[in-house]
Structure formats: structure tokens, C-alpha cells
Amino acid sequence: MDIVDVKHNNRRKIYFYIREQKNATKQKIAYDLNLSLPTVTQNLEYLVERGMISDEIKEQNRGGGRNPVAYSYISDVKVAVGLEITHHHIKTVIVDLYGNVVKYVHKRQLYERTDAYLKLLGDSVDAIIESVGIDPDIVLGVGIAVSGLIDQDKGMVVYGRIIDNEGMSKDDFSKYIKYPTKLIHDSNAAGFCEIWMSTEHKNAYYINLSNNIGGSVLINNEVYLGDGLYSGEIGHLNLVPDGGECYCGQKGCAEVYCNAEQLSDRTDGDLGLFFIHLKQGDKELNEVWDNYLDYVAVLINDIRMMFGCKIILGGYIGIYIKDYMSILIEKVNKKNSFYEDASNYLIPCNHNVEVVASGAALYYVKDFLDSI
Ligand SMILES: [Zn+2]
Questions:
Q1: pTM for the full model?
Q2: What distance lies between CA 118 and its chain's CA centroid?
């Protein structure tokens, strides 16, 4: 490592140390990182000058000596915006450098492939930034999460049948957005949010159990994309040979049996109501739920056999699954060939409705932190 790398490395170490500790004195930084005081001082000055950390005076020393300066992390020196486009909603979020949600806005809006709709996307981004009084200069970028297969090289949705977005490019979605943008697959955004925010896990498979089924392969805190186009598209794993028709043209895909509408269709499209009635002991809904979990259990077992990693249950169903983990675990255990206990690897998601938009925004936070 040459001298420039060593210097750079020291700065990163100090920056991430303060990020983790939230605040620390110069002496403690030098001691914990095993660096000399002049090295620490020089880097702290650099970071303070750029507004990335602050040097505030700690409370008055009782002994009357000099007050030690505590350097603290500034988590909102930069922020990122996430935008999730679904059939019925536009969801926007602002996250800080810790990934904390600064603001989340959920607007009911039917997706349309029109210029007016694209204008609405731009307006939604501007509105959320203005609503919290954030200086547009500190916005790192806008991650746009959509369904469909995305070719990252072309910056384009190359397969999009869930909403009519096939052939639309990053530039189309960004037409009225005045910040840098990235186009991200919705399940990958959600999975990325879960793994990036997790302090416990680095590898996992994220199942997006929403009105459509998707998944995300997460390796070492990053999304694994195969050879570039996609990976982990479990919605189109075959669950039932020659089964129900899927929108993809095949029969018996997991999509057909595990989508959340299998449940919400029983309660006029209201998934929350489904779970309220289920809790109240509705026998018919209980049967529907039990049947649904049987299919999900097959899917989980297949994923476990393939990847042998933790499996995060997310999406719309992930929000409600905590109360039903023991039933699901029992079903999964019955299918496991190696007598494994699913309670060791099956985990409910940590994030809820904002997860996709947050994950899309976090792609920018990650890039920023990687650039330090
Ligand atoms: Zn399919």
C-alpha cells in the first residue's frame, strides 16, 4: 500500500469509526484505531472542513479543565431519495446516511404510461424535498424502483408485464427529475434495504411476498445479479406442474399461488382486513391462509436447499407474518430433508411499507459511503 492509500485508508477508518460510535474524542479515536494523534487531528480537520463531521464541545468539565472536544457524525450532510412506482401508488422517501427515514410519502395514483404521469414522478420528488426544507444540493440522487427485469447496461426495463413499462428507460422515468437517477428492480431494492440495514446478517435470500412474487439474492451485503439481468426470480419457479396460468405465459408458477391477492381478494382487496378477520377466527379465511402457507413453505424449502442461507420474509405478507411464524416454521420443517429447524434461518422482515423506496435510495447512500 503506498502512502496515498494509507492516508486515504486512515481517513475512511476515522470517518466510519465516528459513524459507528456517533461521537468520540480525538484521544479515544487515536487509541481505538491505533493511530497517532497528529494523523487523527489532520483527518478530523479535513472531515470537519467538508462538513462531514462536527466538532462540538462536550458538557463542562467538573474539574474546570479544558473541555474535551467530541467529534460527532452528521448523518444528514447528504440524503438520498427513493421512488417506488406500483400499479396504484407512487411512494417517495428521503433517507439519511444511516438509512433512517427522514420522510415517507405514500400517494394513491394509478400508473399510466403517459407524459403526465412522468411529470407527476418529478413533482413527487420535488414535493418531498421541499416539504422537509432540504437543500437540493445535498441530494445524492433518486433511486427509482420498478417491477420488471432491468438491463443495467441499457438502463431499461426489458421485461415488464406487471405494470406496462416494458421498453421504458431510466431516462424516460427521469424525464422530470432533476437529480441523478438509477433504475432498480423493486425486489432487489427491498432486499438491499433489509441486508444493508442489518447488523447481524450479510448473506440472505429476500422473498418479496406482495401482489407479485419476487426475490433477491443478497451476498456480502450486496445484491447478486447473475450475469447482469436478473437472479432470484422465484415468482416464476414452477410450484405446480401444469397448474394455474401465470401472466408470464407459463403454468403453475409460484406467482400464481403465493401472491398476496390470493388473500386480499377474499376481503375486497383489503389485505389488512384479511388479517383482522383471520385473527378473529374466521374459519374460511383460516383455510385460505393455511393453504397459502403450504405453497409458501414449498418455496422456502426450495430456496433453502439452493442457497443454504437466511431467508427474509418480506413484501406485503412480511408485514403480518410475525404472528404466524410458528405455523410456517412447522410447515417448512416437514419439508426439509436434513431435519433442519427453520427457526434458525427464517426471519420476518424488519422494514415495512417504505422498504422498496428506501432500498432504492440506499443505493446512493452506499455509493457515497464507498467514495469516502
Ligand atoms: Zn410465471
A1: 0.92
A2: 23
